[in-house]
Amino acid sequence: MSRELTLLEKLLMLIPGYHGYKQKELIREDDKLVRERAATELDEARILIEKIMPSFSGDWATLEKLDSLRKDLEFLAQKIRHASLGYSGYFDRVKVREDELRKLLEYDYQLVTLSKELRETIEKMASLIRERGRFLAETANAEAKIAELSLVIERRNKVLLGGV
Fold this sequence. Notes:
By secondary structure, the chain is an all-alpha fold. It is 73% helix and 0% strand. It contains six helices and no strands.
């Protein structure tokens, strides 16, 4: 019987080179690896939406939804990628409290997994182009995941800016 993996172990499996903020000299690099992994997933989802869009030529309502998703994905990827600008004080501290680290690991895991799930949702949408009802249902699912991801980003930022 195998035991359930810890958040740190799951992140280590998802992100090559990640150290879990254990080595002070690599803390910024770990943060960058997490953010880059999540942003790359969102970039891939956005590119796929751009490939889907021509299939809906003339269907302005669907194109508008897809363009909104595309813009949201681009915005979130940039927000994640450039989030480190205000974090220097967090990573400069000698001692990071255990509850802060636990929260950060939770948000890192959610950030990476939600970004991956969002890309997978967009992939599913691409496979459903000819099934309008199911396609629109997946579009709504993608919109919900974007909203959830936005919350995770904000909560992660709060931890990094000093408020657990």
